[in-house]
User: Which sequence fits this backbone?
């Protein structure tokens, strides 16, 4: 079953959060780097599957998701 746009947003948010934890004191850098890499790979795979299922541009899907995640983060920071 193809991923929904909401699924893609959640996967990208997970990757962004994993990246943010890289410089957290007390976190094993190598382990966290691998977590970030895994989360990013899952997002990329899901974007490709979503775009193929919808017959749309993979790049357009990825950029729309990233824009949605950035917009959500900006709204949360206000």
Assistant:
């Amino acid at each position: 079953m193809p991923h929904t746009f909401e699924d893609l947003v959640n996967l990208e948010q997970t990757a962004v959060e994993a990246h943010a934890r890289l410089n957290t004191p007390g976190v094993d850098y190598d382990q966290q780097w691998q977590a970030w890499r895994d989360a990013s790979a899952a997002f990329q795979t899901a974007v490709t599957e979503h775009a193929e299922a919808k017959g749309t541009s993979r790049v357009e899907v990825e950029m729309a998701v990233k824009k949605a995640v950035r917009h959500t983060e900006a709204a949360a920071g206000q």
Notes: Residues 20 and 36 are 9 Å apart (CA to CA). The chain is about 80% helix and 0% strand.
